Amino acid sequence: MEVSILYSAIGIYLASWLFQTFYHLFFLLKPSQFKPLAPQQEPMPLSVIICAKNEAQNLKKFIPEICQQDYPQYQVIVVNDCSSDETEMVLAQLKTQFNNLYYTNIPLNKQHYQGKKLAITIGVKAAQYEHLVFTDADCRPASKLWLKSISSQFTSEKQIIIGHGRFEKQKTLFNLFLRYETFFNAVQYMGFALRGKPFMAVGRNMAYTKSLFENNQVFKPYLNMASGDDDLFIRSCANKHNTTVQLNYDSQTISLAPRSFSEWVERKSRHLTTAPVYKFGTKCWLISEPLTRQILWLLTLCSLFFPTFAPVALVLFSVRLLTLHILLAKAAKKMGESKLYWATILFDFITPWLVGSVWVINMFSAKKKKWK
Length: 372
What we know:
Layout: H1 2-33, E1 46-52, H2 56-67, E2 74-81, H3 87-95, E3 101-106, H4 115-126, E4 131-136, E5 139-141, H5 146-151, E6 160-162, E7 165-167, H6 173-194, E8 206-209, H7 210-214, H8 229-237, E9 243-245, E10 253-255, H9 261-272, H10 280-303, H11 310-335, H12 344-347, H13 350-364
Parallel strand pairs: 1-2, 1-4, 2-3, 6-9, 7-10
Antiparallel strand pairs: 4-8, 5-10, 6-8
Helix pairs in contact: 1-6, 1-10, 1-11, 2-3, 9-13, 10-11
């Protein structure tokens, strides 16, 4: 009986190692190999859309950076979504400073919860131009070339551009975890997109065409969902032909990081509400990766009690960790994420447990998570 259990454990270990190796080389390798398309000779006019709910202070800080991009022709549309702070007053003041800024207000309706999807729809309808770029009110562009860089990937075929939205850097272990988890997720979903299997994006940095949104009733089946306007759009409209990524530093946005663990849990919980609508194949990949990762960690530790198996397990585990380290290092270099990939050593094991815990909380939580 003990021998059969040992052989079963060895089989599970090898299967998990093979899956991890394939996953890394098939998906995580692609971002490090990405070569952006040459910019269009004539930059197309753009509409930048921002949905804001009680974001007066952030708008005051970040709208000037968005309205002063090095780009020939664009407008910035802010949808004030039922704010109860001074958002409207701040927008009115900013409007006097920037001719390319426009804003509209959604009045507060205490009887009906409208959610961010309505704000996005209004912003799209108000857009003057065909090519749209989306970000959030608590984000700033990484450089003055943000719009030029993200929009350079639009072609007659590529109608969706998935960008990277990083968190601001702070000197705390918690902030390091936030930035690493965001970076790893970006490498992962960009890798899927480059393999022709797009499944998500981040609303703080993505772009798509107005006609694509209007020709698909994107949000109609999901009006009861708390979040996921970005993922739901990808779910409804993205495919291997019309979607690409842009990951260099100039194309990125930098957003305010969660100030506490509980705030991160709340954000992650809202994001995970869209996981059930992912395609079946995507869900299988996304569940299998952290599962096999944890199996490797746990069985490697258990192998230390079996001298015959331990050397092989340690070698295979080291190869897996080294491969992941190299792939993330190459992606980090392309994305300007400095030496963030070193955090793999710290967070490779613990991240699936933390995210999995939030997922379990979501399953048993009856609380409705709202757009704030």
